Amino acid sequence: MKAMFSSNFIEILTNKLKQNLFFSGLKSESYIFVPNKFVKNYLMQKFADDPDLKVSFGINFVNIGNFLNFFQNKLKISKDKRFLNFLELNFLIRKKIIENIEVKKEISNNAYLELRKYLIKDGKIVEKRLTKLTFDLTEIFLKYSIFENEKSLIEKSKNNWQIRLFLEIFSNSGYRGYRGCSLVFRDLKKIDIQNIKNIEFHFFLVSYMPPVYFDFINQFKKVFHYFI
Known about the structure:
Radius of gyration: 22 Å
Oligomer: single chain
Largest sheet: 5 strands, parallel
Number of domains: 2
Number of strands: 7
Helix content: 40-55%
Structural class: alpha/beta
Number of helices: 10
Low-confidence stretches: 174-180
Mean pLDDT: 81
Order of helices and strands: EHEHEHHHEEHHHHEHE
Distance between the termini: 21 Å
């Protein structure tokens, strides 16, 4: 069953959630995806205050920001087949930048030439600038990985040095061999979901979900969305 509920009042959505969770028959597991801890705390308090809810075991909360890790853990995907996370992306970006700005030979890539001027002072890397830059680039590259694909990025790369750097790192420099460029982009279609059965997924007040995530979750039979 798939269903969407909407209301201008959070109390109405909460009651609908409780009805689906506790009064719609037996189920093995239920997961409630929430946008933040405040929504989670609100629901936990509402469940605790309701005298009709004598038990609420088997209910699990997941922050929508942990969407990818949750399903990779739930499906027991091996580490070498998991999508690159923030720390891994940050490490690779930093490594590639250092490799290219420290070379003694002439730098032919204009992006790296500008980076060298920005990051190196008196022959040494300005660590504070490098750390801030790699952090910002990691956030940008994660967005590329969710909302873009390799073909689309190649078309846009002519006028965007961040995209050129992204492709240089993950498409042209051998990192396919590290974990695979396909593991950078969130291509969830390749994930086998057969291990997840008889589980309900409730998305409560999650106002936005990337299309790749939305398409993925709708492969499951029991998905409920609650919009305000």
